[in-house]
Amino acid sequence: xxxxxxxxxxxxxxxxxxxxxxxxxxxxxxxxxxxxxxxxxxxxxxxxxxxxxxxxxxxxxxxxxxxxxxxxxxxxxxxxxxxxxxxxxxxxxxxxxxxxxxxxxxxxxxxxxxxxxxxxxxxxxxxxxxxxxxxxxxxxxxxxxx
Length: 146
What we know:
The protein has helices at about 1-20, 80-85; strands at about 35-40, 40-50, 65-70, 80, 95, 100-105, 120, 125-130. By secondary structure, the protein is of the alpha+beta class. The chain has a 4-stranded antiparallel beta sheet, covered by helices on one side. A two-stranded antiparallel ribbon has the order 4-7. A two-stranded antiparallel sheet has the order 5-6.
């Protein structure tokens, strides 16, 4: 079951990484939030404007944040390694409508693998990643409790 969770998590993360490349006109705030539940694991992805509200349209020069959360509502306990997600080349990558690759707003720091058991993902746990597109100088990327 642990491998199944990681397989679904990887699929959801690739979806979240490529969803930025999709250009859609959406006026409804709720429509700007992508949610998926697979085998009791809930995934949520959206972009947030500078006020922290879900949005899909931004003015030139306006900062926005990526928001991604994973919730375990499976009534089972798992383990995870969040670094694998953060180091994925497609996770939170931005593309223009012409296909131009703007890149990512962060580079993951090297991590020493200390074993999967160090990262429990118990029933009811919620892990959140919130990353601003424009970082302040000397800011440190922090992924909530991931």
